[in-house]
Amino acid sequence: MNPSEAAAALREDMDDLAAWNSKPGMFTDLNEPVPVPGTTPTLKFPILDPRAAAPGPSGYAIDGFDYYASGGSGAPAGTATVQAR
Fold first, then answer.
1. pLDDT in tens, 38-76
2. Are 68 and 77 in contact (CB under 8 A)?
3. Per-residue CA distances from 65 to 10, 29, 34, 75, 80 (Å)
């Protein structure tokens, strides 16, 4: 594979990934929230709850955790980051 063929293949992959959520036969959202019934229904995230970036009742978010819903700070949209200490 020459460089131009590799670039074309990469562009094709990126096009597929841009609409991943409309192709459930090819992709899945591993962190899709699950509704948990109860007095007050809640959502549980199997991997990482993006609400962890928002300050809770104590006024603090999880230290070192951030979530970029719209691709802020150069991160892809829907990306979570954790600072290593």
1. 878 788 888 888 777 777 776 667 776 666 665 555 555
2. yes
3. 30, 20, 22, 13, 7
CA angle centred on 65, ends 44 and 18, rounded to 5°: 70
What is d(CA 14, CA 51) in angstroms, rounded to the nearest whole number? 28
* Cα–Cα dist 14/20, whole Å: 10
Dihedral angle, C-alpha 70, 75, 76, 82, nearest 10 °: -100
Q: Tell me how far apart the alpha carbons of residues 39 and 52 are, in angstroms, rounded to a whole number.
A: 22
Q: Under a CB-based contact definition with an 8 Å cutoff, are residues 34 and 43 in contact? A: yes
**What pLDDT is attached to residue 66?**
65
Domain ranges of the chain: 3-82
- pTM of the prediction? 0.49
Among 20, 6, 8, which residue's Cα sits nearest to residue 76? 20
